[in-house]
Amino acid sequence: VAIDPRSGEVLALVGGRDYALSQYNRATDARRQPGSAFKPIVALAALGRRGDDAPAFTLASLIDDTPLSLKTPRGMWQPSNYDGDFRGPVTVRTAMEQSLNVPFVRIGLEVGPAKIAATAKQLGITSPMPLVPSLALGSAEVSLLELVRAYGVLANRGSLAATRMVLSTTKRGDAPPSANAASVTNVADPATAWLVTSALQGVVDHGTGAGLQERINTSGLAGKTGTSSDWKDAWFVAYAPNLVVGVW
User: Could you give phi then psi for residue 36, rounded to 5 degrees?
Assistant: First the structure.
């Protein structure tokens, strides 16, 4: 899926290999776990101001990347990082750039699943958000279009543009009308959105998304990788101010 985050216009959408073989649109109808591609939403919740109080975290806040055990209804949960290693205290920025799971679980516990779910809803995600600790690691299923639209808020400095696949309609023989105006609403603090974008630029510059920078020599790109358990899903969403592209 590719959208213009300023207007919400869907510029490209591929939902399958061959429409003749399957009409199921995986870009709009399939809901899968985004894994670490959900972490920017967690960061937006964590870096935002709490009324008149300071935010719970800054990009420079230190978080312990050390073994963690949590009691859940299904038993003990021990989240781990992709490589199985622990790095000790790391900054929020480093945790994002290197996509470290354990620090983000700790961030999620401090912020609370309810606030993370509320932030996701503000960004236009309508899929259910179970209020569990693993929400911080993208355990809630979303569609690719939902996730790309949410990233569009970051690209558009805190403003959500309603998705538009049809700009206008007309009857045969009539002159085409002018396109309907875009519907744009501010849903996040622009300064907080900028902070998350700054961290995601680091992801592309020298983090888990550095492969993109090697192929597209353009400064200022931001993005995030994501995988679910056992590599069942792999995601990448990248953006500039005028374009957001997501791939599942």
Answer: -70, -15
How high is the pLDDT of residue 85? 96
190: Cβ–Cβ under 8 A, 6 or more apart, which residues?
157, 158
With 90 as the cut, is the pLDDT of residue 92 above it?
yes
pLDDT for residue 213: 83
How far apart, in whole angstroms, are the C-alpha atoms of residue 69 and residue 92? 20
What's the pLDDT score for residue 169?
76
Contact criterion met (CB below 8 Å) for 146 and 38: no
∠177-183-187 over CA atoms, to 5°?
170
Band (pLDDT 50/70/90 cuts) for residue 206 is: very high
In the prediction, which pLDDT does 229 show? 80
Q: Which residues contact 138 (CB under 8 A, 6 or more apart)?
A: 33, 34, 35, 36, 37, 38, 39, 226, 228
Among the listed residues 238, 197, 219, the one whose alpha carbon sits nearest the alpha carbon of residue 40: 197
Dihedral over alpha carbons 203, 206, 210, 214 (to 10 degrees) = 140
Residue 153 · residue 187 · CB < 8 Å? yes
Q: Is the pLDDT of residue 230 over 90?
A: no
State the pLDDT at residue 215: 87
